[in-house]
Amino acid sequence: MAINPFLLDQYLTPGGKNDGSSLANFERRKFYKEFPYFGDLPNPMDSWYDKLYYGRVDRTQNGIVISDQAMADRLVQIKSTKNVFVLDFVADAFADFHQHMRAASTSGYINNAGTRFNILEPVRGWKNYQTEFSDSRQHLRSAVQSYFRREKRADRAVTGFKAFLNEFINFLELRPLIDPVTLSGFVVSNSSHPMMSGLSIELTSDDHGDDTPKVTKYMLDPNFDYYVRAARKYGFYVHRNAPWKLTADVFSDKMLSYLDVYGANESNFFSHYYDRSYTKDIQHMKEDLVSIYNSYVTAFPLIRTEKPPFGPGNARVCQNTTIENKLRESITMSAVDSIVGDGYWLDFYFRLRLREKNLDFNNINTEITNALQINKVQGLEIATKYVNDQVKPYLY
Known about the structure:
Strand order of the largest sheet: 4-6-5
Structural class: mainly alpha
Number of helices: 17
Shape: elongated
Strand content: 5-15%
Number of domains: 2
Largest sheet: 3 strands, antiparallel
Distance between the termini: 35 Å
Order of helices and strands: HHEHEEHHHHHEHHEEHHEHEEHHHH
Number of strands: 9
Oligomer: single chain
Helix content: 40-55%
């Protein structure tokens, strides 16, 4: 690719960095985004501007997570000095790609001097979404406890689990949401990690936010062109914003041939490896709220109430103001279902999804009524899908 000599310095040192000043960074990022670094090579993946949630949503924009069965049976460790796992078909494709690059190196077909691409050594693969989601719940738990200890009225109101749920909604309405609350909200947010899909492999741990080394260390490598073309041959995208990162182009002809070995194809791929996150939302929400409530009960078991000396009609009922302490009681998951039914959870969930994304539906009560009717006739999962379908067009 011929480069205009007036752009050569900027081409070699685009200079965009996450910690750069806003105005200068905007221009540098814009240059890196628009400059044809890949020239006539196969199109790279642009996970910053184009395919932000690739591997985290399905074709109809539902949030997805690797299913429990896939975690148990379909994650495979890649041969590496690091503990790197990816989905089975991705591991097979990478093994063939790696062998191809080694053969090209051994035969002298590629230049072995000053290259990073003769030996491909993965350092990062699948990242378990459950760990990060759990971490974000800990932040929420801490924030809730701080709120209740600060707001004495709210603390006194928490006399049981259902009262806690009412105060939890008040808590959400009175503060900006820093972390997503539902699993679906988490998946399509910056809180979730792009590597949670099991579709990607990183060959180094370099900084995604520093543009210059992407050019000097990778794109100027004598074998970069060969690497990009060979990766595409085996069904991988190379990332424009991290040239050391490979992601399976799942529905490319080559990757479909690897999928076929495991009984998966274009029509069943998502159900074979993933669950739609909305199918897990309400159960996760119940477990989270029970855990947060029980943690609060453990930390602050007493309800302190003051009884004034005067009752109705200003009649004196006791000599002085008295203090009464009652014990809060923890709750089990089995007890929750006898206290709060599906209809309540569905209403709660709908309002939570709206609050989570700061959405305001003028007809929210009508939409909730529709969801409750669907729940009665078709069950909770179909009703949850209805809620998700109302919210997801506003997620992107």
